[in-house]
Amino acid sequence: MSKKRPGTRSLKRMLKMELVKELLEERQIGEQKDKQLAKLRITIEDLDKLHEEEDDIILKMEEEMDKQKLLHDQLHFVSNEQLTMQLEKIAMENRCSICLCPWEAKNYHRLVSLKCGHLFGELCIRTHLQLSNVCPICREIADGNDVRRVLLNDNP
Ligand SMILES: [Zn+2]
Ligand SMILES: [Zn+2]
């Protein structure tokens, strides 16, 4: 019994099978590439979507900032009004409550206080204390000895 040599036919068949195998492998690689490409495409689509969402977020943030700015402006307006009112109040308080005139830095209507801390023009409170022995605002007992000069920081 001699060993059968592979005949030309079976050789051809083997070659054919090799070829088919290679082709199949190539196709598989191709499919994998396609899949990878598809994944990439999905990733790119996702990125686009993300960008759209980002644009949305930026738009919303801008809207929010506009709102905040409006609120801030309104608040600023309110605080300006309040400031004006406070300044008016201070201006009113910076008048002698007896004659309603502003105090003077020097002379007869200069700023003085009583023990209680209430402020007056000197002439007005001295005149008042000749007739009465109480502070005209809080009615705490006071006399001419309680009249003290008040020095504002910007006055000598
Ligand atoms: Zn006065
Ligand atoms: Zn007083």
From TrEMBL:
The keyword Transport does not apply. One of its GO terms (molecular function) is zinc ion binding. One of its GO terms (cellular component) is nucleus. SUPFAM superfamilies: RING/U-box. Pfam families: zf-RING_2. Keywords: Metal-binding, Zinc, Zinc-finger. Residues 96-139 form the RING-type domain. It comes from the Eukaryota. GO terms for biological process: interstrand cross-link repair; protein ubiquitination. SMART domains: RING. This is RING-type domain-containing protein. The gene is Dere\GG20119.
